[in-house]
Amino acid sequence: METEQIIIKPEVFEESYLPENILFRENEIKEIFSILNAFKERGIRTNIFIYGPPGTGKTTVIKRIFEEMSSKNFACIYINCWTCNKSHSILSKILGFFNPFASFKRTENELLEDILKQRENKSCKVVVCLDEVDRLIDDSILYTLSRNGFLLVLISNDKFALAKLDARTKSSIMPMEIEFKEYSIEELKEIIKSRAEIGLRPNSVKETSLRMIAVASKGDARKAISLLKTSALIAESFGKEAIDEECVAKAVKKLKDAKYEEIIQNLKKEEAVLLEIIKEHREIESKALYQEFCKRYKQIPERTFRWHIKKLVEMNVVKAKGEVRWRKYSYNL
Description:
The chain has helices at 26-42, 58-69, 87-98, 108-122, 140-147, 167-173, 185-199, 207-217, 221-237, 245-265, 269-281, 286-296, 302-314; strands at 48-51, 74-80, 125-131, 151-156, 176-179, 283-285, 318-321, 328-331.
């Protein structure tokens, strides 16, 4: 006899799923909503910069707020800069929000002019969210949008993502900063428990398994949800009635291996070698890492070495701690 399926609502575990209640982000939601509402009701425009580690709810919160606040006279436009990172493509995306049938094979000035006409004709205020803003190839679009009365919501994993902007752009946007901190183990446990109550068959996951997933996820809710889903699929494949610690352990290894292979394939050779060394040592001092890299691969200037390691830290696959001279790097997958 076949075991009853554990996953009963697969959509609950998709990245696009927006929970009805977003746990442990009440203060951040209240602050963002207040800023946007001041713009909507009174025309007081304050740009927002949201930062924090991956999987801390930044995108989910904004999408939920946008969904609730969007109206005929208040347009909320979400754009991910991983796939839309040039000024022309961003302007095309904004224009497409108002008129999907518009011609986008025009200059940026022409697109902007059309957007401004659409905004005027509809008598609406416009909020534009640029997620992963540090992926922009041309950040002049920030100045363009801000100077033309759009409220900007900028999101990044990197607290210093806006540091490289020129003085003119910084002066123009002057955002309110809102930090999204890592979830605690107990908070993550509650988040995945709430997903399990909706997406899994009742009594199909043990409390000890939920805690194990929360610990393994290191503050990352996206990772925790993915681990819960993978653990459920593993439990189903073994014909188990519930997700136990063995299923979670297998899921952790499976996701770590898959993540590592995905990352390695998209890294430069120098970065891949550095990550491999850090993975082998689990934790290693900066000087020892540099020496091992030069011995194993090739001699490079220390400045170049720091540039490559900085990228791994920004990707959150490596963690850094300590002062520059005595800094240690640890594997974070």
